[in-house]
Structure formats: structure tokens, C-alpha cells
Specification:
- By secondary structure, the protein is an alpha/beta fold.
- The chain has a single domain (16-23, 47-215), classed as 3-Layer(aba) Sandwich (Rossmann fold), CATH 3.40.50.300.
- Helix content is 46%, strand content 14%.
- It has helices at residues 31-35, 61-72, 79-88, 92-102, 109-121, 137-147, 161-170, 180-203, 213-217; strands at residues 18-21, 49-55, 75-78, 127-131, 153-158, 207-211.
- A 6-stranded mixed β-sheet has the order 1-6-5-2-4-3, with helices on both faces.
- α3 crosses α4.
């Protein structure tokens, strides 16, 4: 389970979490980013508030995003859900996406960014949680190139590998990638491709790491 830092309540309620900023550990008010009014986007003005939410499969991204949405009214865009919706549409993109996911590989950046862009442009919201993206440095560069924007902050849910595997296998959502072989492949891809993105945003001072309780106490499961 997650442990909550007292100063951050009620940023993530019930299951809680411990959040560390790579610049100033434990000494900030992250919720101000979510409650500050984002001005209406105008030509030459500030664009929408963007928060990337990163973490391995089963790390708790979707659960915590739902709590942030409930408390602060942000619009949650799950890259995985957008891809699955495209698969269900039986489009040409959908077939390519399905085959890629079955192999545990990363969907081409332009495909995912185009789906995210379409959702953002069709929304009246000016605050977005983008869940599960970018998953590689190429993803990150493509987003910044196509969207012309960087995230304001990045949340990284740092969870032990076996905990993630157990969560995915026990969630019973009927997803094509929720099986032991594909989960292991996804975790290998995550380590190889997503960690450089996390390190990049850490250097940029935008990364907030949400630690699993066992990591906080020094005990891994």
C-alpha cells in the first residue's frame, strides 16, 4: 500500500502516499499546482496545465489519477485507454496498436500523441493528467515536438516489481496484455525505455516520486 506524507493531505486520500521531489524533498505543496486557476488559453498566452503520470504496469497510476480528478477536477487522459478505444474501433491504427501491445512493445509515438492531442483539443478543460505517457525518450520528444509543450510536473509511482505483477494478474479486467508473459515483457520495456524519461524530468526539476510503503521502510516485496 501507499503511505501519505502528512503535509500533502488530502492530495491523495484513503490509500495515501509518500511523495518526494528531487529538488526539495518533503518540503513543498504540490496540490497548489492542481488548485491554481489556469487561464483560458489565448494566442501567445499560457497553454493548458499538463501533468504526466508515470509508473510501471500495476503501479497504481489509474487509481490515484481518479482521486486527483475527484478532488481537483482535472481531466484524466489515459494513454492506454485511448489506445484500447482505438483498437475497439477496428481502424487501421487499431490493428497496428493491438499487434504491438500483444508483443509488449511501445506503440509508435505519433499514433499515441495524435490520440492525446485529439482528446485535449476536443475538451473544454485546461488541466490534464496524462497517464502512462511518455514511455520512452522518443515518446517524450515526439510529444514536445507535436504539441509544442512540456509537462508542468511529472508524477512517478515507484512500486516494487513483484507487487506490480501481482496487481496486474489480480485485477481481472480482461485486457489482452494482462497475462504473466506480457506483464514481464512490459516491465522489461519499462525499465529500458521509461527510466531515461524519469531521469530526464528529474534533471529538469519537474519530477515527484510517489514511493510504495515498503520502499519507505526499506522492505521490498
Amino acid at each position: 500500500m501507499w503511505r501519505r506524507a502528512a503535509s500533502l493531505s488530502p492530495f491523495i486520500s484513503s490509500s495515501g502516499s509518500l511523495i518526494r521531489n528531487h529538488q526539495t524533498a518533503y518540503n513543498f505543496k504540490i496540490w497548489e499546482s492542481f488548485t491554481t486557476e489556469i487561464p483560458t488559453q489565448v494566442k501567445g498566452g499560457k497553454g493548458p496545465f499538463i501533468c504526466f503520470v508515470l509508473g510501471g504496469p500495476g503501479s497504481g497510476k489509474g487509481t490515484q489519477c481518479a482521486k486527483i480528478v475527484k478532488n481537483y477536477g482535472l481531466t484524466h487522459l489515459s494513454a492506454g485507454e485511448l489506445l484500447r478505444r482505438e483498437i475497439a474501433s477496428n481502424s487501421e491504427y487499431g490493428t497496428t496498436i493491438l499487434n504491438t501491445i500483444k508483443e509488449g512493445k511501445i506503440v509508435p509515438s505519433e499514433v499515441t500523441v495524435s490520440l492525446i492531442q485529439k482528446e485535449m483539443e476536443s475538451s473544454d478543460s485546461k488541466k490534464f493528467l496524462i497517464d502512462g505517457f511518455p514511455r520512452s525518450e522518443e515518446n517524450r520528444a515526439a510529444f514536445e515536438r507535436i504539441m509544442g509543450a512540456e509537462p508542468d510536473i511529472v508524477l512517478f509511482f515507484d512500486c516494487p516489481e513483484e507487487e506490480m505483477v501481482n496487481r496486474v494478474l489480480n485485477r481481472n479486467e480482461g485486457r489482452v496484455d494482462d497475462n504473466i508473459d506480457t506483464v514481464r515483457k512490459r516491465l522489461q520495456v519499462f525499465k529500458a525505455l521509461n527510466l531515461p524519461v524519469i531521469n530526464y524530468y528529474a534533471r529538469r526539476g519537474k519530477l515527484y516520486t510517489v514511493l510504495h510503503t515498503d520502499q519507505c521502510s526499506g522492505n521490498s516485496r
